[in-house]
Amino acid sequence: MDATAYLARIGADADDPLEVLMARHLETVPFENLSIHERDHVPLEDPALVEKVVDRRRGGFCYELNGAFAWLLGELGWDVTRCSARVATPDGLSFPGDHMALIVNGHTLVDVGFGRFAVGPLDLHSRDEQSDRAGVFTVADAPDGELDVFWDGRAQYRLDPRGRSLADFVPMAWWHRTSPTSPFTASLLASRLTPTARVTLSGDQFIETPDDGERSERRLSTDEQLATYRDVFGIALGAVPPALHPRES
Question: Domain of life of the organism in this record (predicted)?
Fold first, then answer.
């Protein structure tokens, strides 16, 4: 476990400000669920998460990405707290531990594991609008000391600022990896930021969402999917794995 190797993986320097470290991570380490469909269980432990991101040059979902990034920030001297969040859905808030986010230095929200979200840090003490490359974010007080995070007026999740350990997220990580009703088991997904857009491969659909411009989609053949995983996301696959729990259309 070497912070120098991690920094090289994301193309950053140890003295870079937090917003630069976040942007470099989001641009180089994809949000992806391929390990779930490959039945590749990665334990929620610092060595395993760092090995996956740095040595295997893979991405992951929230527990893996924010877990690994928390380790890096800690090695660089930042004060990092792992926190539980409940995601906002059309049916209300999800379960505690459904998402893991980070609080840095006691008041700054950092999240490199939520897919499309803020590219930079957010001040949890501020109740003003906070402009970000992705849009406008706001933070509001919620019951029991929790905090609601909004993006362009739409609720994203409710954050519990109390510190958690990686082990606290093991049950929900297991659920997300195995449940037929998990959003991660129905189809394959890989997504990352570029300097001007977000690119996503969802199933066989390649989606490009420019910062300034119109979203485009096109269907890819199996060979094109493999090439896109390799060339766009840095993931070399021998074959596209079948979905763990495909849902009927």
Answer: Bacteria
pLDDT per residue as tens digits for the range 15-45? 999 999 999 999 999 999 999 999 998 999 9
Q: Is the pLDDT of residue 249 over 60?
A: no
Catalytic residues: 62, 99, 111
Residue 144 is classified by DSSP as G
Three-state SS at 176: helix
In-domain check, residue 229: no
What DSSP letter does each residue of 46-87 carry, written as one string? HHHHHIIIIIS---B-HHHHHHHHHHHHHHTT--EEEEEEEE
Q: Please report, for the domain that includes residue 146, its CATH number.
A: 3.30.2140.20
**Overall number of domains in the chain:** 1
Q: Which residue spans within the chain are E strands per DSSP? A: 31-32, 80-89, 92-93, 99-104, 108-110, 122-123, 130-132, 135-141, 147-151, 154-164, 189-193, 197-202, 205-210, 216-219
Distance CA 13, CA 7 (A): 6
In terms of residue numbers, what domain contains 50?
3-170
How many beta carbons lie within 10 A of that of residue 116, not counting itself?
A: 15
> Does 111 map to a domain?
yes
Q: Count the Cβ atoms, other than its own, within 10 Å of residue 249.
A: 3
Q: What is the rounded distance in angstroms from the CA atom of residue 50 to the CA atom of residue 32?
A: 15
> In this predicted model, what pLDDT tens digit does every residue of 56-90 receive, in sequence order?
999 999 999 999 999 999 999 999 999 999 999 99
Structure tokens at 160: 């519990």
In a domain, residue 225? The reply is no
Give residue-wise pLDDT tens across range 92-123: 999 999 999 999 999 999 999 999 999 999 99
- Please indicate, yes or no, if residue 189 is contained in any of the structural domains: no
